[in-house]
């Protein structure tokens, strides 16, 4: 006897707008005119799906892609035509050069051991395998120290190797007035002078959007492609990409003085009606979005109206105050968690985090759907 079919489609819905992804890439490509515009697709393309997002960016015109790990790079390679160029931001893992060569992945080399292994692979294959040289200009993550520049140059000159690109990463680009940006730009310019004629890349989304001096020959946007806010304190011009909805399970009346949720952290100050919505921290809806007597939490939208979360977010569900709605939602109606009414950055601000974390946490029990919207008319 065949196993019974498993019911699907009763939980939340995550919808990714591939048309918005394309328009965001094209908008940034216009801003960076004169430089090549890549696409950062690490972390499953910020939670939107690495294969689908990479194909959308390719169709929009992108040919350079940035993944974090070789596994991600392999997924991008499998999704795209042969003329795609894929950089691996985490560099070269020990002993992995043959994999990179076989999959035509370009490591962002960040240490002397990485560089030595890659140059050995070049010698073994008798070809200048493409890679980037990553210099640390002040963020203190990956990257050659600046006092290693002469060693790097000596090693590559010893075999006549020319890297595909030199790069660094800005620490404070989301705050354009920060002095660190000017310091890093000056340091990176000094590194570039040691490698004349080699293309350079410094800008992430915020660097691209805030200062043309940061563009050089390649820009590497990430969060802005996915509709997130890149520059603090400025209006976000990017099209929203993700819509997340979750179903109402039931509604119930709660009396004045009753508490809601674990810990009894919120006491109702009036007779209220709550909708219990099927989403929780297991779905990437953070506990830090909870509400209490002393702290305003986030909100969702039901029937187009903002409704505050009440009490603590639990693993599978939240309580939402729908008292002021003209009619209570019926079981099965969808609450908008992210969309036209509530952005990823709205939730991030309440949770004291960033939109990146909101997006990359969307790994919950959703049905995942892809659509392609047309550009809005003027």
What characteristics describe this protein?
single chain, 378 residues, alpha/beta, TIM Barrel, Lyase, Ornithine Decarboxylase, Chain A, domain 1, 2 domains, seven-stranded parallel beta sheet, 28% helix, elongated, pyridoxal phosphate
In short:
Its EC number is 5.1.1.1. Pfam families: Ala_racemase_C, Ala_racemase_N. Helices cover about 30% and strands about 20% of the residues.
> What proportion of the residues is helical, as a percent range?
25-40%
Number of domains: 2
> Termini, distance in Å?
58 Å
Q: Which structural class do you get from the secondary structure elements?
A: alpha/beta
Query: Number of helical runs?
Result: 11
Q: What is the highest CATH level, the class of the largest domain? A: Alpha Beta
Question: Per CATH, which architecture of the largest domain?
Answer: Alpha-Beta Barrel
* SSE pattern: EHEEHHEHEHEHEHEHEHEEEEEEEEEHHE
Number of E-type strands = 19
- Average of pLDDT: 94
Q: Give the overall shape.
A: elongated
User: Quick one: CATH superfamily of the largest domain?
Assistant: Alanine racemase
Largest sheet: 8 strands, mixed
Low-confidence stretches: none
**Can you tell me the CATH topology of the largest domain?**
TIM Barrel
Radius of gyration: 24 Å
Strand content: 15-25%
Protein name: Alanine racemase
Family: Belongs to the alanine racemase family.
InterPro entries: Ala_racemase, Ala_racemase/Decarboxylase_C, Ala_racemase_C, Ala_racemase_N, PLP-binding_barrel
Domain Alanine racemase C-terminal: 241-371
């Amino acid at each position: 006897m065949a196993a019974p079919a498993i019911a699907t489609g009763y939980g939340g819905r995550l919808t990714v707008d591939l048309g918005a992804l394309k328009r965001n890439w094209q908008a940034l490509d216009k801003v960076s005119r004169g430089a090549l515009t890549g696409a950062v697709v690490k972390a499953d393309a910020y939670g939107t799906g690495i294969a689908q997002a990479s194909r959308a960016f390719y169709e929009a015109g992108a040919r350079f892609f940035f993944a974090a790990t070789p596994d991600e790079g392999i997924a991008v390679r499998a999704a795209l035509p042969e003329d795609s160029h894929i950089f691996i931001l985490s560099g070269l893992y020990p002993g992995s050069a043959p994999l990179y060569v076989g999959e035509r992945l370009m490591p962002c080399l960040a240490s002397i051991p990485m560089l030595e292994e890659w140059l050995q692979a070049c010698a073994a294959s008798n070809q200048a395998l493409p890679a980037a040289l990553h210099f640390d200009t002040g963020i203190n993550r990956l990257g050659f120290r600046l006092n290693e520049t002469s060693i790097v140059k000596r090693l590559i000159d010893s075999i006549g190797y020319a890297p595909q690109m030199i790069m660094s990463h800005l620490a404070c680009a989301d705050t354009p007035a920060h002095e660190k940006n000017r310091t890093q730009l000056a340091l990176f310019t000094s590194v570039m002078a040691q490698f004349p004629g080699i293309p350079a890349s410094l800008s992430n989304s915020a660097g691209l959007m805030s200062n043309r001096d940061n563009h050089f020959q390649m820009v590497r946007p990430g969060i802005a492609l996915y509709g997130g806010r890149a520059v603090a304190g400025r209006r976000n011009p990017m099209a929203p990409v993700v819509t997340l909805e979750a179903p109402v399970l039931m509604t119930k009346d709660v009396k004045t003085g009753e508490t809601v949720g674990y810990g009894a952290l919120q006491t109702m100050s009036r007779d209220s009606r709550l909708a219990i919505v099927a989403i929780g921290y297991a779905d990437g809806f953070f506990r830090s979005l909870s509400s209490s007597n002393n702290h305003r939490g986030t909100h969702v939208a039901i029937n187009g109206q903002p409704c505050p979360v009440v009490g603590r977010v639990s693993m599978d569900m939240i309580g939402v105050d729908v008292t002021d709605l003209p009619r209570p939602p019926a079981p099965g109606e969808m609450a908008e968690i992210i969309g036209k009414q509530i952005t990823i950055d709205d939730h991030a601000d309440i949770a004291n985090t960033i939109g990146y974390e909101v997006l990359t946490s969307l790994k919950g029990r959703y049905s995942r759907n892809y659509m392609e919207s047309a550009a809005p008319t003027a």
